[in-house]
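To the structural biology subgroup,

Please find below the input and predicted structure for Aldehyde dehydrogenase family protein, which we are adding to the shared reference set this quarter. The sequence is reproduced verbatim from the submission form. If anyone notices a discrepancy with their own records, reply to this email rather than editing the shared folder directly, so we keep one authoritative version.
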Amino acid sequence: MIAYKTLRVLRIGSSIPNCNIKNSASWPAAVSGRSEGFFVEPTVFADVKPDMRIAQEEIFGPVGAVLPFKNEDDVIEMANNTIYGLAAAVWTKDLKRGLRLAQEIQSGTIWVNTYQVLTPSAPFGGFKQSGLGRELGPNALDAYLETKSVIVDLNDQPLTFF
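Predicted structure (tokenized):
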């Protein structure tokens, strides 16, 4: 299903005026040596605008979209102007800038100068419409728990805060 969605996005993207597809193969972007199934060459869409469908949807494939930006505020606005927020990556020589952007971008996981590094000790999950809850880490246990508060007054006088 994921590969099918990726191919559908590639077909849609290939029909967008002024949106250039960059990959090592000619269209369709099929992986050589694979005659059956859905396999896609790593593909980059250049000259993408923030309102284009490819910039607004989660693709889940070897597909990237390159969007030009003017400054940090522009990057934050484009990154947060979507209904999704599963993961994001920031590539920069300035670590303080990377951490500043990571704080502002609305995404469940943000990598700085790396990508798709996961560890069982760090929670993974998205913001907005990119899922509910968290996988991995202690937060993953929350889905299996029903939290209850039990308050007992053992004093002779009633305990009240109001």
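Summary notes: The radius of gyration is 22 Å. The longest strand covers residues 43-46.

Regards,
Lab coordination
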